[in-house]
Design goal:
heterodimer; A: mainly alpha; about 85% helix; elongated; B: mainly alpha
Chain lengths: ~90, ~120
């Protein structure tokens, strides 16, 4: 199937970049969580890791695609990870 | 990539016509860019609170972190709303509306940057 402008490929790469962003955040949260003995941050790291791994798998297989439930779920993951991260960071 | 299944389709996705897939994919990439921006702001918020040494003004790190995190949350929500609004507009062949999300996020980041500069000039305890 033709893909003028490589739109599908660029979109798949965008999903991969997003996956890497989640994994990088997971690494930061895990490092901070372990150094500060913060279970909340470790939980946030686990959530970010799962999300990033899921996106990476979906991008690799080409099965991930924007939809209302899918984008809503991704938004929910970001808000959950952000909330846990801030809760852990502010607790000290 | 697979088409969106009927189970995952929202009501507005059944209205109008399917847009050119390239426009739809461009909209999707923009949504992902908002998500990555949100994650970066959240990471910055955590880093400011836990990695940056204390400033002379007590609690300033926490305030900066909260502002960054709130901006990150807003970026994620605005990105989703913009994606849905644009997708619906393309289906119904309506004009795409541009909100003030970019202005808000840009302003918040500029304010945080200015605050960090001022705090650095004030000095450390």
């Amino acid at each position: 199937m033709s893909d003028p402008g490589a739109a599908r490929q660029r979109t798949r790469l965008a999903w991969q970049r997003t996956s890497i962003s989640f994994l990088a955040l997971a690494g930061l949260l895990l490092r901070l969580g372990l150094s500060h003995a913060s279970g909340i941050e470790v939980a946030a790291a686990a959530a970010a890791l799962l999300t990033g791994a899921g996106l990476a798998f979906g991008a690799r297989t080409g099965s991930v695609r924007a939809s209302v439930p899918g984008c809503g779920l991704l938004l929910g993951c970001v808000l959950l990870i952000g909330t846990l991260s801030m809760a852990g960071a502010l607790r000290g | 990539m697979r088409a969106v299944s009927a189970r995952n389709r929202s009501r507005w996705q059944d209205e109008g016509e399917d847009p050119d897939y390239r426009y739809s994919l461009a909209n999707e990439r923009t949504f992902l860019a908002w998500i990555r921006t949100s994650l970066s702001l959240i990471a910055a918020a955590v880093a400011v609170i836990q990695l940056v040494p204390s400033f002379r003004i007590a609690g300033s790190r926490e305030v900066l972190g909260i502002v960054l995190a709130a901006t990150g949350f807003a970026a994620a929500v605005l990105g989703y709303l913009r994606w849905a609004s644009t997708e619906k507009a393309m289906r119904l062949r309506e004009p795409i509306r541009y909100g003030n999300g970019l202005l808000f996020v840009s302003t918040a980041i500029a304010v945080v940057g200015l605050a960090v500069l001022l705090l650095a000039l004030v000095g450390r305890p």
